[in-house]
Amino acid sequence: MEQGTGCRLLLLLLLLWGAGCRPSCAGQLSDYTTVIQVTNGGPWGDWAWPDMCPDGYFTNGFSLKVEPSQGVPGDDTALNGVRLHCTRGNAELNTHVVESQSGRWGAWSEPLWCPGGTFLVAFSLRVEKSMTLGDNTAANNVRFRCSDGTELEGPGHSWGVFGDWSDSCPKGVCGLQTKVERPRGLRDDTALNDLRLFCCRN
Questions:
Q1: Which of 123, 125, 122 is nearest to 162 (CA)?
Q2: Which H or E run includes 6?
Q3: Which of 6, 86, 88, 115 has a CA positioned 20 to 30 A from the CA of residue 182?
Q4: CA distance 47 to 60
Q5: Residue 136 CB contacts under 8 Å (≥ 6 apart), including other chains
Q6: Quick one: which of 67, 68, 41, 85 has its CA closest to 180?
């Protein structure tokens, strides 16, 4: 193994360990080679466990958990969760869903799919900047890019702006990890703040 590759895998192992990784996920390091992320994620919460597609599967669809607008003076959390739909062959018969941690509010949308046999390779996150006064929401929506260049935008909210696209996975995305703020009682909640994706090795 080249020295750079070994260092990268060691760094990833430490990253997952520090994120409260489930006991089984350290063994899944061999399932991906690269982590892709964006630079505009929200500042609150903690990184949860990674969740990976089974061997031989790749992601070609996603769905979002979104809380509807709560109006005034409600507490909006907007985007609460992301699910990736891993497929092998016939997507209707061989689909596996990976999720990581999600917030408690909202409902799951219907999946959006890449066309044909294409797959997810990159993402962009819509985030509202933190406010000293006001209702913070952090991440509000996600766009994904498919391997044929198609862009899919989730049914999230329009608060904030989309940041730059992440790097692309040459062989597709095969897992995710979320950064989620836990419920804060009567204080301002933001739920999902940030997202990382893992690139497939094979």
A1: 125
A2: helix 3-18
A3: 86
A4: 24
A5: 42, 44, 128, 130, 188, 190
A6: 41
Place of tokens 């979104």: 66
The closest alpha carbon to 135, from 83, 190, 79, belongs to 190
Of 18-22, 90-94, 101-105, 189-193, the poorest mean pLDDT is in 18-22
Ramachandran quadrant class, 15 (left: phi over 0; alpha: psi -120 to 50; beta: rest): alpha
Taking residues 125-150, report their average pLDDT.
Answer: 91
Quote the pLDDT of residue 94.
Answer: 75
DSSP E strand stretches across 95-185: 95-98, 107-108, 112-113, 120-127, 139-146, 151-153, 161-162, 173-180
Residue 13 lies in a domain: no
Residue 187, classified by CB atoms within 10 Å of its CB into exposed (0-12), middle (13-18) or buried (19+), is: exposed
Whether residue 167 is contained in a domain is answered as yes
Total domains in the chain come to 1
Which residue intervals of 46-201 are DSSP H helices?
none
